[in-house]
Specification:
It contains seven helices and no strands. The chain has two domains: 77 residues, Rna Polymerase Sigma Factor, Chain: A (Orthogonal Bundle), CATH 1.10.1740.10; 96 residues, Winged helix-like DNA-binding domain superfamily/Winged helix DNA-binding domain (Arc Repressor Mutant, subunit A), CATH 1.10.10.10. The longest helix has 35 residues. By secondary structure, it is mostly helical.
Length: 174
């Protein structure tokens, strides 16, 4: 593979790699660092890439694994506490930036594998079989991670909304 071929791959796939990393961490700086590391690793392993489809699968798998590795090495695991979430009115709309920010934080509070599965499923619009191939796990495990992650997000969101509602009632009665 030539330098021009590598440059073509980087230009064509940098958005996907950055998107996966950004959706995993919700931090542009970290996403850029991950993308640089992934493309450096690709450059070092160009001989192992057999085709375009293999390259895309390799990039997705490597990006997710790099995100998980970086997350595990991080001294601060970003667990979201209810007190840290912003107050939101009772009437929210799907395009509400505070609601989207809260959802980002809830996703960010998930353990790394369920979060990786969620990012690939909803951020990259991959089906369970593709995710299983990318993360090298059985499809049933992918579905288990999706179900658990969704249940955790629902539970945390319900707790937040209950706390928010109780706070509003206390504020009004004061």
């Amino acid at each position: 593979m030539t330098k021009a071929d590598f440059e073509f791959i980087v230009r064509g796939q940098q958005g996907m790699v950055y998107s996966i990393a950004y959706n995993f961490f919700r931090n542009a700086g970290v996403a850029e660092e991950v993308a640089q590391d992934v493309f450096l690793q690709l450059y070092e392993n160009l001989d192992s890439v057999k085709s375009g489809a293999h390259c895309i699968a390799w990039l997705r798998r490597t990006t997710i694994h790099r995100c998980i590795d970086l997350w595990r090495r991080s001294s601060v695991q970003h667990e979201v506490q209810l007190e840290e979430l912003p107050d939101v009115g009772t009437e929210s709309y799907p395009s509400d930036p505070l609601l989207l920010q809260k959802l980002d934080r809830l996703i960010g509070s998930l353990p790394e594998k369920p979060r990786a599965v969620l990012v690939l499923r909803y951020g990259e619009d991959m089906d369970a079989e593709e995710i299983g191939r990318t993360l090298q796990m059985p499809v049933r495990t992918v579905w288990s991670h999706l179900q658990r992650a969704t249940a955790l997000i629902r539970e945390k969101a319900a707790l937040f909304f209950e706390e928010s509602k109780n706070e509003q009632l206390r504020t009004r009665s004061s």
